[in-house]
Amino acid sequence: MGKRVxxxxxxxxxxxxxxxxxxxxxNLQSESExxxxxxxxxxxxxxxxxDGQTYKTVQMxxxxxxxxxxxxxxxxxxxxxxxxxxxxxxxxxxTWAAAMESCPAGWFLPxxxxxxxxxxxAGGQPTAGKSxxxxxxxxxxxxxxxxxxxxxxxxxIKFDNGSYKIDGxxxxxxxxxxxxxxxxxGLNLHYYSDRAELNSNxxxxxxxxxxxxxxxxxxxxxxxxxxDAxDGQTYRIVKIGSQTWMAQNLNFKTExxxxxxxxxxxxxxxxxxxxxxxxxxxxxxxxxxxxxxxxSLDERGKCSPRFPVRGVCPxxxxxxxxxxxxxxxxxxxxxxxxxxxxxxAGKSxxxKELWKGSDKKVDVEEVKRNDVVYRDxxxxxxxxxxxxxxxxxxxxxxYKESVxxxxxxxVKGLFWTSNQSNSxxxxxxxxxxxxxxxxxxxxxxxxxxxxxxxxx
Length: 456
What we know:
Layout: E1 3-4, H1 7-22, E2 44-47, E3 54-60, E4 63-66, E5 77-78, H2 84-90, E6 93-94, H3 96-99, E7 107-108, H4 112-121, H5 125-132, E8 157-158, E9 164-165, E10 170-178, E11 183-190, E12 197-202, E13 212-213, E14 224-227, E15 234-240, E16 243-246, H6 264-270, E17 274-275, H7 276-279, E18 317-318, H8 322-331, E19 335-336, E20 341-343, H9 345-349, H10 364-370, E21 399-401, E22 405-407, E23 412-420, E24 425-432, E25 437-444, E26 448-449, E27 454-455
């Protein structure tokens, strides 16, 4: 899940900045200066057969984007301040429902993945706003560099109460990715910042629309990947059963995360280690679903998250619950073990490399003595060496204790769930170098473990 924006709070703050900027000399283009398009970019063209309007288009990565805001007149679409001249200048503003139906044939409203990839190409969220904004038309010193010819224009917003705000100061673009029944995600750009934000907004608001050509391919093989727009890092992903998982440990840097042994090379190899409050995004940097988890507890000594919990995961992904991990174990052929785990799932999910070597086999007689349900079903000993049958590649990244420091790299891989056990402990998942079982247990909230994210 992404960060939920209280739009009225945002607008109140924005209008203060807007008023301040208006008190200085605006950086407005002359009548002869064309708003938007980058004259140094070679554009292609699209003609909308519905109304004959033409749009410039630009290739970014493997996607072709409209380089102008959509102007197609559809129900629940509007001109800023209800003036036709503003439709000519900025395109129309669409409710989310209208936006979902308004792109020309062969084009569609961008998904969260499309926007994420676009932001990565533009340098990542912290600076992508400057790179994507047009080089003219923005208030004060808010013009962008328009490095790729995307030429984002500050078309403002129409609120569901009918009011229009901040043309010249902000641009809002819809995605097709829903947050819930009332909200959907969109890209936000502002004159006072170089950042680009993917936030949740009320579907009834009016936003600009950019369409993208073609369709996103279905995930069907193990070597698919996606890019985290926050820092531009790319991760392999894998579809197992009904779920799509990251096939690498998360390596997004937060203030309190760490590399095993404080060595950057271990972050490159194993990903970063996160405390549970950090993994849950207790500070609500990206989403409010895990707010205060690990710091503010209810009468039971627990927090009360709203599932799924995005936590520290990229937009469109979330920290898996214990039940989602169990679903994964069953999907790879795991059988419930008499302890808290799934037989065979550990072997199938562990990577083939980086684990301490072991020739140990699972004892058939031990299974028969302790598990009546599966008596006589296990015909031969199971090697505990990881076979990585599904490309999940669970790594032995170890963990960090609050007192004793870093431990068991190469021997154990531990991963957070979004489920708290009690006031001091949270459910975790762990794999051992000398076992074919995938276990679930508990770790202290302040310990630092690895994170794998699962797609929403």
